[in-house]
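Subject: mismatched residue count in predicted assembly?

I count 1178 residues in my input, but I want to confirm that the predicted structure covers every chain. Input:
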Amino acid sequence: MLTLLEQLDKGSLWQSPGGIHPPELKELSNTQAISRLPLAKHFIVPVPQVGEQARLLIDVGQTVLKGQLLTEGNGFLYLPVHAPTSGKVTDIKPVASNHASGLAVLSIIIEADGLDTWCQLNASDPNTLSHSELIFKIKQAGISGMGGATFPTHIKLNTASEIGLVIINGVECEPYITADDRLMREHSHEILKGIEIIHRLLSPQRIIIAIEDNKPEAAKAMQQAISLSNLPANSTRVTVIPTKYPSGGEKQLIQIITGKEVPSGCLPSQLGIVVQNVGTAYAIQDAIYFGKPLIERVVTFTGKNIHQPGNYWLPIGTPITAALERVGFQPSTTQKLIIGGPMMGYAINDTYVPVLKGTNCVLAPSDDEISPDMDEKACIRCGECALACPALLLPQQLFWHAKAEEYDKAASFNLQDCIECGCCSYVCPSDIPLVEYYRIAKSALRIAAEEKVLAEQAKLRFEARLQRLEDEKIAREAKAKAAAEKRQANMKSSDKDAVAAAMARIAAKKAAQSHEVNQPVNTQSDKAVTETTDKKTAVSAAIARAKAKKAAQTAQSHSSAENNPSQAESTALNEQDNITTEVMSQKDRIAAAVARAKAKKAAQNNQANPSVLAVNNVSEMTTSDDVKNDKKAKVAAAIAKAKAKKLHQTGSTDNATEIEPTETHSVIITATNNTVITEKPVTGSKIDATDLDKKARVALAIAKAKAKKSQQKDDKIIGYEDQHPLASRSEVHHNEPISTDIDTESVADVVLNDPEKDKKARIAAAVAKAKAKQLQQTETKNLELALSNAASQADNFDSATLDKKAKIAAAVAKAKAKKLALQADKKD
Amino acid sequence: MAFKIASSPHVGNTLQTAKVMQRVALCLLPGIAAQLYFFGFGTLFQIAIAVITAYAAEAVILAMRNRPIKSTLADNSALVTALLLAIAIPPLAPWWIIVIGTLFSIIIVKHLYGGLGNNLFNPAMAGYVLLLISFPVQMTDWVSPMSAAQQSVTLSYAWQVVFDSASDILLAGHNLAIDGTTMATPLDTLKTDLSMGITTHESLAKPIFSGMAGLGWFEVNFAFLIGGLIMLKLKVIRWQISVGILSALFLCSSFGFLLNPDTHVSPIMHLFSGGTMLAAFFIATDPVTAATSARGRIIFGAMIGVLIYVIRTFGGYPDAVAFAVLLANMCAPFIDHYVRPRAYGHRSGS
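Triage response: the counts match. Full output below for your records.
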């Protein structure tokens, strides 16, 4: 078994299936050397990429030189466009293109000055250039595949795959066309120079120059050129292949030379093969050695209605009309004018279209050279098309489905593998324009695929939205459920607890009172130090807990009308438990009470400014407590209350701007924002209170933190109450046990009268302030998290300073807010 | 000036449907000539009646279907159908036999299914089967080969039998006037003999089996083979179906013959008797009703070959070409669905 390389060296050939042998008629145009025609007066240079991947470098009225760059861009498929001759840009407008569709394409119209003056050319020696420089030069020369597909050459030469074989395509299997034939005969050395550059870029093991056996002169010329070239010995050879259409097709040629098939939907580079046209090799040579951009090519003018058939160097952009005039075109009445060969070329309606980089032939056949227009007849399923198909398709089945517009079924017969070579149409005894059917089916499939992609995107968007809504709903429900469960659990706490709690509270209050009397000032300042586990502390803890429970209970009983218990509520209870386990000094407790009162008041104020009655009631209720409280506590409470009020005021004004929060989240966010905003005024008020004594300040700081927290909650509540005003909500707050509640006026007096100044207290104040700030910050970041975190944080940091009760109250308020939120959700 | 626009390719070969059909008809000529020589001029009248009936029927049905009449008649497909049916039926069958057969073929089998290219069954064979089932007596009375009867069927005699004596045949069944000139076909004789317990060896000793596969029959089949080879050469047909039929028939009959020569006839007898060659080259190769892919066609042909052998050997009818072809026609879409060539670039593993 020979290896592929050995087979290649031997010149072994494989059979390509199908194919046809149409009359070649090459002798019409291949007898004379390539010549030049007089320069056209106008040139049409299409710049289809302008607007998408490129922009123009010139403007109307500007003078250009031959070879001058006209566009600039950087897209993947972008190819520079150059002026084919020197002259003046007279217009830039859409002009009918040299394309089967004849659709207009933006084109630069250049009026030639007849001088054909070159711009500055950068000739170079390829041996001094690096790979990337070579690729860049090839790209800058605007070189694309000259075989007709006009794929940018620099991409093909810059492939990531390892290339083992380069096939230089000199097959030219289409009838009539002899442009490559003449080019190989006359410029074999230049082509070989181009091949040398390709060899440098891809370093393949072998280079095969494939030529059909109907071009013996070309094969001979190329063989001679190889022997004179600088290519490594035995790396390059000419392989003559039997004449058969469409052997020149890339896939077919690969099959004939190597026996391999390019997998469907893949590029030859996947097999390590690159196919380049001989004309492309010539253009590469021109670009590197002379710096000439691709601005002219060999075009075959042939057909019996052309008097001087032959091959001509034509600048890209030359109007076909102008060229036809110069070769003696005499149209018949039913003239067809074909760009390309008779098998795959397209008929054009208007000849005022430019020569393009892929225009290899202009065919003007007489009526007897081409088939007359025949009516399509019934398919007799003769199967000749299948025998002729080089892609081994079943053209008749494709036709059947394409005609019935069953494009999906046509696709299942591998319609996409059709290369539109026209063999099936050629052999069809019923004159069915099979290729036309396939083109229609292909474009229909393409459109369908595009629509499908768009529909898929729309569907994904829609589904994502549904999913998001669903997720939100599920999250809400889960939250509600969890809260309900927790609440259920809490409900177990019996009425006894409540009674006990009340009792404990009363006892605690008494104890606190007596304790405070004993240690009026110092204990408060000593808060951090004196973490004594004395009985009183225990009592106070119990009280606090009881209070918390009661508060929770109250909240629950109030909320029992609504079946939505809140998670936060239970969290608050848990917090309380935690708190109670901590050792609390009396002072702490007092401060806590003060702060809580503050918070409550703040809440009260927030909710029920108009409900003066309720406030009064509360204050009346608490007056007895007031008496028991020492002055300090009162002072602190008053300060805090004042603060809270101020804070509340600021908050409420802010709230006013957002009267109707419509969504839970937005409300929460609003609440957070409000808190943030209110922070500054609070600080301001703190500064104002410099004349207050330290203790008071400490209390103030504590209260402020508390107040903030409560403020937050209150804001939330306000938000909800705007929507669902519930009287019971404010009741909840009022009914909560409030140990210290003093009228603002009296508090102010007390404050002024208080002379005590203590360093420790100051420290505590600073600490508290820091706490408050920290708390504030956290809250702004994440409201939900912050609520619990801040509370616990504060506890850890300075348990003495922070008021547990206030915290509890805050928690209660929070719970309330949550409940409200849930309720709001439900109502939504 | 504006030029004419057309989709590529702009050239095509000149072998069009009408020409294909014309060539098929021309390639039938050697076989027709042999048939005329050995079985008299009756076939000539049958052909004339069939062709006239076919064109007339096609013109009428095209008019009813609002289809172009002239261009469709010019495709010569009706001509081929008429020729095949006329060759297949007994040369001296009464005129109305061929008329009924042709009308059925053209109108019902071909045009009611959508005309050329859309018919599921081979029109000639469907018509033949209709006649065989409906008029078994007329369809099995075959003319004796010339040399056996020692009496030639002249033009005038054939005319008389085909047109004038129709009623006599109908009434008498076996009219004396033609009694001496008709007889069962060799395959029919063989089947009858085998059913009577006579071995093939004894049966083949009968004068009707003189020659390689029955007097006259071998020559006619050989002439059709020649015509078929010419068609292959002209690429009017492709080899797959014909080779499929003949090789399958040959293999099956060889196997049977080797197994039990007393009840099975030789492969030569199978290949060169009855309508084997006509079917292999002219009937089964009708592309409309055959499978389309190369492999599918081999399967299609082999199927016909096996069916011919099975029906001839085990079935109730002496010849089986028509049945075999119709049965295979039914399977053609099925074969096409499952037997698809591997397209370029779809090689497994590559």
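Chain A touches chain B through 71 residues (CB under 8 Å). Marking this ticket as 'not a bug'.
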